[in-house]
Amino acid sequence: QLVESGGGLVQPGGSLRLSCTASGFRFSNYAMNWHRQPPGKGREWVATITADGRNTDYADSVKGRFTISRDNRENTVYLEMNNLEVDDTAVYYCAASGLWGQGTQVTVSS
Fold first, then answer.
1. Span 49-79, pLDDT tens digits
2. Burial class of residue 54 in the structure, from the number of CB atoms within 10 Å of its CB (0-12 exposed, 13-18 middle, 19+ buried)
3. Would you tell me how many other CB atoms lie within 10 Å of the CB of residue 2?
4. Could you say which of 1, 10, 34, 109 is the most buried, measured as most Cβ atoms within 10 Å of its Cβ?
């Protein structure tokens, strides 16, 4: 099971940190991903972190503004989002090996 939290309403230029806590599988064995689905659009990949946390990758649209990290002791993956833009408005999901969370809404608006 994956459970996201930390979404909300923020002004452009603001920051949020999303969390995703895993249970029911060996978290430390799996790469973790964040995806998002903007209103009226399809789901898109945002970021990936390897199982050991040593390597990360980002979509061009968020590179330099978002940071993915994980704590394998806490079975949690994070997405730190800075300098948020209106186009970042979406439901954000964490995912691993075909398992998806329920999503958390992020709205960027003045």
1. 999 999 999 999 999 999 999 999 999 999 9
2. exposed
3. 22
4. 34
